[in-house]
UniProtKB/TrEMBL annotation:
It is a multi-pass membrane protein. InterPro entries: MCP (IPR002067), MCP_dom_sf (IPR023395), MCP_transmembrane (IPR018108), TXTP-like (IPR049563). Its main location: mitochondrion. It is found in: Mitochondrion inner membrane. The lineage of its organism: Eukaryota, Metazoa, Chordata, Craniata, Vertebrata. The gene is slc25a1b. GO terms for biological process: mitochondrial citrate transmembrane transport; neuromuscular junction development. This is Tricarboxylate transport protein B, mitochondrial.
Amino acid sequence: MSGNSTFVSPFYSPRCLAAAAPAGRAQLTHPGKAILAGGIAGGIEICITFPTEYVKTQLQLDEKANPPKYRGIVDCVKQTVNGHGVRGLYRGLSSLLYGSIPKAAVRFGVFEFLSNKMRDESGRLDSKRGFLCGLGAGVAEAVVVVCPMETVKVKFIHDQTSANPKYKGFFHGVREIVRTEGVKGTYQGLTATVLKQGSNQAIRFYVMTSLRNWYKGDNPDKSINPLITGAFGAVAGAASVFGNTPLDVIKTRMQGLEAHKYKSTLDCAVKIMKHEGPMAFYKGTVPRLGRVCMDVAIVFIIYEEVVKVLNMVWKTD
């Protein structure tokens, strides 16, 4: 009889392993949990990192000024604080916050939905499939949230640099944009945004998936410390910055108040190259690098920790 016991044990082992392996966790990371955890992570992250986003956008828009208003990052911060106080660095936060929460929610929700379907029988998601899932998540967030949200944000920040700002707040600004330009006015630069977000998330999730698989090795059950998750996120963020800053510059120009100067995304790229040279495509890289590394690290840490809590209180087996 004891022989039967020893033979039963191996049959239980795969089931127990499945419950603890990434496949099990992927099923527990139900898209609903991913949407909630992503939204929480996105909201907290943007409140921490917005000043660097503000400076990056100002420097990119300032490129067209003759002579330029700012001499660099530090000068931009000094002039903004002197003219508007520290709160000036948070002008436009409301428009970004309203978009950042659903953006992260859509991103993680779509990623988990796709990755749950693309894992192998052991529950492992390889880096190539991680790339494809990230691409899908990036395109979804671009169309549903990012394009209209970024268009409003850039117009808000650009509006502040004018002698007589016309937008009094988020909802007033949206009403004015829709009234004068129609809904189309909130979808300027859609092609550039889809290219930027799609490549952004494809690169980030590819790097994150690769690093996670490398760290776990042959032990898919190995837990990852939040600090290591943050370090992996920072590396993924840096990779995405160097991979698509030119698209970010084009997107910002296409969504500014002078977007009417460009006929299309391609026309914008050609004009920047012709009149300003190739280095103009990397304007704002340093402030963007700092923001994105911190952004991605914070988002992944908070997301993973919130999912752990949700797994304890929200059973989706």
